[in-house]
Amino acid sequence: MSTLVLKDFWVLNKRTRWMLIYLVAMVVLIPNIFGPVPLVFLVTFALIGQSGLIDDKNKIAVTLNSLPLRRRDIVVSRYLTALICNVLGLAIYAVTAEVARRLFPAREISQVSLGSAVAAITFTAIIAALYLPLYYRFGQANAQLLNIVFMFVPFFALGLITRMFANGKLPWLKPFVHSVTTLPYPLLIVGVLLIAAVIVLISITISIGVYRSSEC
């Protein structure tokens, strides 16, 4: 499975370096008051989407299916690639933000905290868990459209819900938000990670089933 993950990074090659340079430049040049979640998500998802597009363009799935590889390993490796890209992006953001804070103390640069790190990992993991089964179902024909939709719709939807909640238009959501925000911090962190893990496991199961059925 590690070979399959390395294959993804080998396929991305220069794109990985340029996306990480882009992440560093965004942290240094643009005031970031929203923390690492948006930037880390955009970089991670751009790499996932590019990997899928390149695979489809070069018919890599056909080659993989002709090899003695378990279909489960092929699918799970893509999820591992997403996780590694996410953690790598988060680590580079953290180092860059700390260096930038020391070099430009007057600039407002959000640092990585435990909460923001968990938010970045879980948010990206959940969106990837929604995206990958659709990618395996619809493949090359709609991959580019899926990439565009999943790059922008989550932030639009999250912003819309936040605005509606702030304006009191979602009263049914208020008790849930209150109960969540009053949880002890360690319990909240563990709970968020567990929910994300369950969603990813369900997504992996669906993706494996879709991938196998697509060969029939």
Largest sheet: none
Low-confidence stretches: none
Number of helices: 9
Average pLDDT over all residues = 78
Q: What's the helix-strand series?
A: HHHHHHHHH
Oligomer: single chain
Strand content: under 5%
**Structure summary, number of beta strands:** 0
Rg, Å, rounded: 19 Å
| Backbone structural class | mainly alpha
Helix content: over 70%
- Based on Cα principal axes, name the global outline: globular
Total discrete domains: 1
CA distance, first residue to last residue:
23 Å
Question: What structural keywords apply?
Answer:
216 residues; 9 helices; mainly alpha; globular
Description of the molecule:
Helices cover 81% and strands 0% of the residues. It has nine helices and no strands. Helix 2 packs antiparallel against helix 3, helix 3 runs antiparallel to helix 5 and helix 5 runs antiparallel to helix 6.
